[in-house]
Amino acid sequence: MSSALAHGSDVLALTGRHLRHLRRTPEKVIGVALTPVTMVVVLGYLFASVVQVDNSGEYREYVMAGVFAQVGLSCIGITAIGVAGDLGKGLIDRFRSLPMGRATVLVGHTLADLVTAAMSITVVALTGLLVGWRVHGTVGETVAGFALLLAFAYAMLWVGALLGMVMRNLEAINGVAALLLVLFSFLSSSFMPLTGLPGWLRAVAEWNPVSAVSEACRQLWGNTGAVTSRSFPVEHPVIVSLITLSVLIAVLVPLSLRVYRTSAAR
């Protein structure tokens, strides 16, 4: 019990350290929220009269769930650069000399970045409200949708932590993070219905975690959802999202901790 409390206090201390650093570098929040906010404005106004969504819904309501999911994808690069920077500056070595658990450093880092993601989601939500997006579900469904977004963001933060430890080179990390952002955003139902895709590519897009999270949020919030097929991930996006995110976190966390032990020892 005392050991668990000690590890918990260490995690809180490191999380607080990262959050204090965030106060001195607020551009980190801007970096995560800038692309999604831009997508809200550009897609919400320029494409609203062009893109037709099934069920006679408005495109602004359709696109917002995908934009929220993009916040999670944007977190990959932020966390990867932060972890790689700590390794490069020898900060990890100093932490290793302290009497703290092996998982403390990465858990503290990802929790602090999760706060950044929550702040970015708030900024995107306010921007969406300004352009006409509304939630039509119950309070419980609304909260569940945002909780799912935070779970998705947390899974992506561990992707970023793993990427930062494996690559370390900041230029390479920026390139890979940008590729993941574009690939997983546009090969999904984030911004467009999947009806125009070839059969094999549509199946890939439907099982994309970004599609599942986007469709789940639309379902929970009562926003427009285009029924593109009768496949399981399209008909049951909430279940698919929960299973996918649980598997991702269950795999990424221990894998990242294992890589951390070897990376910190180099």
Can you give a write-up of this model?
The chain has 266 residues and is an all-alpha fold. The chain contains 11 helices and no strands. It has helices at 2-24, 27-46, 59-88, 91-96, 104-130, 139-167, 170-186, 199-206, 209-221, 232-235, 237-264. α5 packs across α6 (139-167) and α6 runs antiparallel to α9. The longest helix has 30 residues, at 59-88. Residues 1-6 have low confidence and may be disordered.
Could you give the topology of this structure?
Layout: H1 2-24, H2 27-46, H3 59-88, H4 91-96, H5 104-130, H6 139-167, H7 170-186, H8 199-206, H9 209-221, H10 232-235, H11 237-264
Helix pairs in contact: 1-5, 2-3, 2-5, 3-5, 3-6, 3-7, 3-9, 5-6, 6-7, 6-9, 6-11, 9-11
Keywords:
266 residues, mainly alpha, 77% helix, disordered N terminus
Q: Approximately how much beta-strand content do the residues carry?
A: under 5%
- Euclidean distance between termini CA atoms: 32 Å
Count of extended strands = 0
Rg (C-alpha, Å)? 19 Å
- What shape does the CA trace take? globular
List SSEs in N-to-C order.
HHHHHHHHHHH
Helix/sheet category: mainly alpha
Helix content: over 70%
- What is the number of helices? 11
Could you name the ranges where pLDDT drops below 50 across 5 or more consecutive residues? 1-6
Mean of residue pLDDT?
81
Major sheet details: none
